Amino acid sequence: MAAASRISSLLSRSLLSKGRICGLGRSVVCSYTTAAALEKPITPSINVNYTKLLINGNFVDSASGKTFPTYDPRTGDVIAHVAEGDAEDINRAVSAARKAFDEGPWPKMTAYERSRVLFRFADLIDQHTEELATLETWDNGKPYEQAAKIELPMISRLIRYYAGWADKIHGLTVPADSPHLLQTIHEPIGVAGQIIPWNFPLLMFAWKVGPALACGNTVVIKTAEQTPLSALYAAKLLHEAGLPPGVLNVVSGFGPTAGAALATHMQVDKLAFTGSTETGKIVLELAAKSNLKPVTLELGGKSPFIVCKDADVDKAVELAHFALFFNQGQCCCAGSRTYVHESVYDEFLEKAKARALKRSVGDPFVAGIEQGPQIDSEQFEKIMRYIRSGVESGATLETGGERIGDKGFYIQPTVFSNVKEDMLIAKDEIFGPVQSILKFKDINEVIRRANTTSYGLAAGVFTQDIDTANTLTRALKVGTVWINCYDVFDAAIPFGGYKMSGQGREKGIHCLSNYLQVKAVVTPLKDPAWI
Q1: Where in 312-395 does DSSP place strands (E)?
Q2: Could you tell me which residue ranges the Aldehyde dehydrogenase domain spans (predicted)?
Q3: CA 282, chain centre distance (Å)
Q4: Are 511 and 357 in contact (CB under 8 A)?
Q5: How many domains, the chain?
Q6: Which residues, 6 or more positions from 362, have their beta carbon under 8 angstroms from its beta carbon?
Q7: In 3-state terms, what secondary structure has residue 66?
C-alpha cells in the first residue's frame, strides 16, 4: 500500500484511539492539542543493548575507546553512550569488508543463496517491529505509529524487493559485426561505503544496504551521530539471518572524522550518501580526490506543491499539510513551497491555518500524536531562525512560530502567507514544520517560479484536469512528480533529484546499477554456423 494512503488511514484511526499508548502498556488521554508535549514523557519499555561498532561480525569498542551520547529529543536527556568511530575504525571496517569481498563466501554464494538471507532478514524485521520502532522513535522523535505502522512495513517490503532481484541480475549476449561472441557481465562493484542521515535512519539503512547486498557487494555504513541505535539493532538481525562476518560493518561517528575517512578511503569502490547538499558537495570532492570512486548522492530539496484553480480545496489543504508537516517537516522532499492559484488562495489559506491549529503535537509514543520534537537543539535553533527571518522579511505569520514547553525540541506547526521567492523561507531548505504559502496566476507563471531554485527533488500537483497535470509533469525539473498524492514510496519507484538535489537514483531497478560494474567479454568464434 502506498505510504500516503497508509498515513491517511492511520491518522483517521487515531481519532478512535484516544487513551491508548502505542504498544507500551500505559494509558494516557490524547487530545489534539499541544498538551501532550508538556506532560511527563513515557519511558520506553526496551533496553538499549547495542552501542558498539559492528566490525567483521562482532560488536567492538572504538579503537580510541571514545564514546559519544545519543539524546532523547523529547527531553534532551542522554539515552545511551555509543562507541565513537574515527579513521582507524573505518580502516578496520574497510579491511573486514575488503577481505569478505575478496576472500569470503558472500560474493561467491549463488544469487539464490544471497536472496534467502535477505528474505530471512525481512522476516526478522517483521518479528522485531516493536523493538525497532521504539528505538527509532526514542532516538529520532518521530511518532511511534509512523515508525511501526508505516516505515517498518516499507522497510521489510523493500528488503524483499531486492531479495527478489538478487537472482535476476544478468548480462546480455550482443550481436557482433564479426565472428566474435560478445557478452556483457554485471559484476558486484566491491566494497560500498554508505553514509546515512538522521531523519529516516532505518529506512535509509534499508535503501542503502538492500540493493548493495543483493548485488553481492560488501558494505561499510556510517550512521548519523544523532541516530545510531536502530541501525545497530537491524544489523544484528541481518547477521542472525545468516549474513557472513565482514559483509556488513556499521560505524557510528561524526562526519569530519568517520565520514571523511570513508569518503577518502582508497579501498572503498563506491560511495553512497544521503544528506544535505552542502555536505554532499564535500563528499563528492573527497571521493574525487582519493580514488575517483563513483558517488550516488540523494540531497536536499525545496519542493513545490501546486494547487490549481480547479482543486477540491479541502482535499488539497489536507494533502499539502501532509506534504509539509510529515516527519516534523524533516523530509528532503517536503512540499515546502505551497503554490496556490489566486482564485482559491484565500479559502485555502484559512483552511490551511485551521488544519495546522488542529495538528496534535506531543510525546511521539502517545497514540494519535501527529508531530513529535525536532531531532536536536541545533536543528531546533535553525528552524526558529528561519521563522524569525520570515517575519522580518515581511511574510505574514498566520499561526505557530513558537516553542512548545521548555524541555525537548517541540515547535508549533507554523504557517506563513504572503511569501515571496526572494525570502529565505522560500529559498532555503528549512527541514522543519514551516509551511510557506505563495499565490500564482497561471500555469506558465507557476512553472517558471517552481523551477527557479537550485533544487530539483520532487513536486506535488493537485488538479482535476489531466491536461494541466501532464503539462506540469513534463515542465517541472524534478526527479519525482506526485499528482493528487504525495510521499508515495513504493519499493519499485526510483527516487532522486535533478540539479543540486543529487545524482543517481535510490530504489527500484535503477538503483541496482549503482552497485554493479558492466564488463564486456569478447571471444573469437572459429567457423561459426551463424554470427
Answers
A1: 337-341
A2: 59-521
A3: 19
A4: no
A5: 2
A6: 30, 34, 35, 36, 37, 38, 39, 369, 371, 372, 410
A7: coil
Catalytic residue, chosen from 131, 145, 225, 298, is 298
* Residue 36 in domain: no
Q: Is residue 69 part of a domain?
A: yes
Q: How far apart are the first and last CA of the chain?
A: 48
pLDDT truncated to tens, each residue of the chain (531 aa)?
444 444 444 433 333 333 333 333 323 223 335 555 667 899 999 999 999 999 999 999 999 999 999 999 999 999 999 999 999 999 999 999 999 999 999 999 999 999 999 999 999 999 999 999 999 999 999 999 999 999 999 999 999 999 999 999 999 999 999 999 999 999 999 999 999 999 999 999 999 999 999 999 999 999 999 999 999 999 999 999 999 999 999 999 999 999 999 999 999 999 999 999 999 999 999 999 999 999 999 999 999 999 999 999 999 999 999 999 999 999 999 999 999 999 999 999 999 999 999 999 999 999 999 999 999 999 999 999 999 999 999 999 999 999 999 999 999 999 999 999 999 999 999 999 999 999 999 999 999 999 999 999 999 999 999 999 999 999 999 999 999 999 999 999 999 999 999 999 999 999 999 999 999 999 999 999 998
CA distance 306 to 440: 9
Of 497, 531, 35, which is closest to residue 273 (Cα–Cα)? Answer: 497
Instruction: Categorise residue 465: left if φ over 0, alpha if ψ from -120 to 50, beta otherwise.
Output: beta
Using CB atoms within 10 Å of the CB of residue 467, give its burial: 0 to 12 exposed, 13 to 18 middle, 19+ buried. Answer: exposed
Distance CA 339, CA 260 (A): 39
Same domain for 289 and 337?
Answer: no
Alpha helices by DSSP H, 359-452: 377-392, 424-427, 443-451
Based on the fold, state whether residues 71 and 177 are members of the same structural domain. Answer: yes
Range of the domain at 345: 304-494
Residue 178: give its domain's CATH number. Answer: 3.40.605.10
Residues 253 and 117 in one domain: yes
Looking at the domain assignment, is residue 63 inside a domain?
yes
pTM exceeds 0.85: yes
Q: Are residues 252 and 374 in the same domain?
A: no
- Do 125 and 190 belong together in one domain? yes
| CATH, residue 327 | 3.40.309.10
Same domain, 318 and 279: no
Query: For the chain, percent helix, then strand, then coil, each to nearest 5?
Result: 40, 20, 40
Q: Specify whether 298 is catalytic.
A: yes
Strand bridging mode 396-399 / 337-341: unpaired
Q: Is residue 38 part of a domain?
A: no
Same domain, 358 and 227: no
